[in-house]
Amino acid sequence: MSIPVARCWSRAALPLAVFAAVAGVQLWLVAGAGTDVPFQEQWDVEGRWLYPGFAAGGALHFSDLLRPHNEHRILWTHLLNLGLFKADGQWDPLVQLIAGAGLRAAAAAGLAWLLGCNLGSVGRWVAAAGVVAAYLPILAWHNALWGFQSQVYFVLLLALGTLALLAEPEPTFRRQCSGLAVGCAGLLAMGPGALIPGALLGLALLRGIGRRSWGQAGWREAWPALVLLAFALSLRVQVPELAELRPASVGEFVGALGRMLAWPHVDQPMAALVLNLPLALVAIRRLAGKPGLAPGEDLVLLLGGWAVGVALAAAWSRGGSAEFAAGVPSRYVDLIVLLPLANAWSVLALVSVAMGPGRQVTRLVAFAWGGFLLIGWIGLSAQMWRGVVGPRLRDREAPVRLVQAFQATGDPAVFAGQPRLLVPHPNPESVRVVLADPRMKGLLPPSFQPSQPMGPLSRAARWLVGW
Prior knowledge:
Blueprint: H1 5-8, H2 13-33, H3 41-56, H4 62-65, H5 75-88, H6 93-116, H7 121-134, H8 141-144, H9 150-166, H10 173-187, H11 196-210, H12 215-235, H13 250-261, H14 271-275, H15 277-287, H16 297-318, H17 322-325, H18 333-336, H19 338-353, H20 358-394, H21 398-409, H22 428-436, H23 456-465
């Protein structure tokens, strides 16, 4: 069950390769489809509030960075963006995209390290390959091409750290305090951080049922999760304006949840039953009091449990929206992809312990399950390529031309009839206010102030992506 961290450091080469692969592909996507045009909430949160307040001096306080954005606290995203803004001397979403590629690659490398650290050589390669395939950016294009989405990468990194530190059945007090500190940081990264204590409590309950007792062992395992839960509840905020996005009926909620749990078969909610059966079987074995199938099983259960929590929360808070009716929004993929990864690990573990006449049947079923997952992954990737990524690669400058035309004319009609993903903000007034703000003079993204010299990070970013 335990994760021998010291031994894992000698196996760092493969996670480094995962980092390079994920970062390289994402930088390729940014180079071909990215721009320095802010998108949607960036105009309001960054352009109208964060940077003008910071540039004005004294108008922005640390406590302001803790205030909620919808249901989320995104402290680390604000700090990253302010750091990049200060270092570059201007606002440049392209620099944010490159920083995000590094954060996402670090999360993928950490996940590959955690999943493979107790496995043999072949197992580590399989884990690394699975993580690389899961974190190719085509399916998560929203986060990869929107500089504001570093919050997703921060919560993913901090969740992985928290769950890894607290996954052991008998962690030291020092390890628990470390996990608690990282978990508290995760609560300030994004809303899904509040679901971490739920996964931890679920594992503690699973262990208690498996050993048919709770006692001191149960409380020793559960207390960090209870502290995190209390902190999460203290940060909770209600946003009445978003209530209309909730499901209007139980059926609508179940449909949205089914699509999340069935990812990548997002058009077949019933596929969730097949895709999540392996992880369910592992959990049932533990409920029956059987020992774990392989080292690292508790961490896999935590990762899967957290992903299920993300699916439940997303279906409850956004399941009535039009984008959920069409499938699973791309911005959720970096988190929900943990669920098929946990199930894939469970498939391999179940095959490894199969014995007797059923061993061959188990292998055939596992092969069929993997094929079903792969078919969904390929189909959804092709859909995203045709609908979003391909068109952006063919005309990367389209959003830039639209905003430059609006900047020159002030006429919102330039956005009329344009595809939604090319329009920088649903309310052109938000764009106009930022472009006209005297506090942002000389600080706008390079595309909107071509006569101004670019900052050092902006120059380096363009060199890196070959612009």
